[in-house]
Amino acid sequence: MATVKFTFEDKSIAQPLVIENVDVDTSILDLTEDHDIHLNHNCGGVCACSTCHVYVLSGEDDLEEISDKEEDFIDRAINPRLSSRLGCQCVILSKDAFIEIEIPDQSRIIGHEH
Ligand code: FES
User: Fold this and answer.
1) Which of 46, 71, 75, 103 to mutate to test the pocket of ligand 1 (most atoms within 8 A of CB)?
2) Which of 7, 12, 51, 63 could pair with 42 in a Cys bridge, judged by C-beta atoms 3.0 to 4.6 Å apart?
3) CA distances (Å), origin 97, targets 2, 9, 21, 107, 114
């Protein structure tokens, strides 16, 4: 089972938040939904917006590869970096994965959750 460690750009949120026993084939967006972590997802997780933008600090190799379409949407995200991904497209591939994710400050994103 995989492990995902979340940190938050918004320092008012208690961190880090470590989630263990994560099933393979779970996306980072699914995980945020399941654990009440605020991550916007305006298109509903179909790679058609950039509101689920996250930073992958480590463990990138154990995630589904980035697609051209995802890269296009990342370009439209606020403050993209080399580590940027879309949370709905980051599907965990390995049961031994240890993935570190930073969630951007959601107050700067016009979106909705849940
Ligand atoms: S929720 Fe829209 S691209 Fe991920």
Assistant:
1) 46
2) 51
3) 5, 23, 10, 29, 26
